[in-house]
Design goal:
The structure is a single chain. The protein has 196 residues and is an alpha+beta fold. 19% of the residues lie in helices and 35% in strands. Strands 1, 2, 3, 4, 5, 6, 7, 8, 9, 10 and 11 form an eleven-stranded mixed β-sheet that branches. The longest helix has 15 residues. It starts with a helix and ends in a 6-residue tail after the last strand.
Length: 196
């Protein structure tokens, strides 16, 4: 079934994916605007990419529902790539800081190797810069995200552990991409909620 919203967005951009000149469409979507069919397709894509995360069988987010999404669709309306963004106010040793928290980046297996992740990052980074968000943050592997401008940070982190219902240090690979000339703060970072 074709997802017409994917093709009627004012923010949609056609581009060739690089194989056989197939056209794909990149669009920004507010999470609240997704239809039931969009939800079904997105959950299907997320579970196909993250089969160990059974939460995607029931909902389109893992820990916390994001406000913003970028989706790549085929001409037939099939979702083939996705990235979510949380707007967050975090606490740092230098005070409050507004960041974009990137989550649930995925590309359908048959569309990998076509630069779709870089395309998603360019669109998200441009969107954040327009809104004066100085940093994009994610939790991932440096070998995957370094080429998109992300670097490991050494700050001590606190995140809400929803299972234990208490604050605890996060043990992962937090990475940040600078979107302006602002320096990343040193010291403790409190995410004021779950990781994304």
């Amino acid at each position: 079934m074709k997802s017409t919203k994917c093709f009627n967005s004012d923010a949609a951009t056609d581009f060739a994916s690089g194989r056989d000149g197939e056209k794909l469409l990149l669009s920004y979507r507010a999470d609240a605007s997704l239809s039931e069919e969009d939800d079904r397709q997105l959950r299907h894509l997320l579970f196909a990419c993250f089969p160990y995360e059974r939460a995607f069988l029931r909902r389109r987010f893992l820990k916390e529902q994001p406000a913003h999404r970028w989706i790549v669709c085929t001409e037939k309306g099939e979702f083939v790539a996705h990235a979510a963004l949380h707007e967050k106010m975090i606490r740092t040793s230098a005070g409050e800081l507004r960041i974009g928290g990137v989550a649930e980046i995925c590309v359908s297996a048959e569309y990998r190797g076509r630069g779709l992740v870089k395309l998603l990052f360019r669109a998200m980074h441009d969107w954040m810069r327009e809104r004066k968000i100085d940093f994009s943050m994610l939790f991932g592997q440096p070998k995957i995200y370094a080429s998109s401008g992300y670097a490991l940070i050494g700050n001590e982190l606190r995140a809400d552990n929803a299972l234990a219902r208490h604050w605890n240090p996060f043990c992962g690979k937090p990475m940040v991409c600078r979107l302006s000339n602002a320096p990343w703060p040193s010291g403790m970072i409190d995410l004021r909620g779950p990781t994304f």
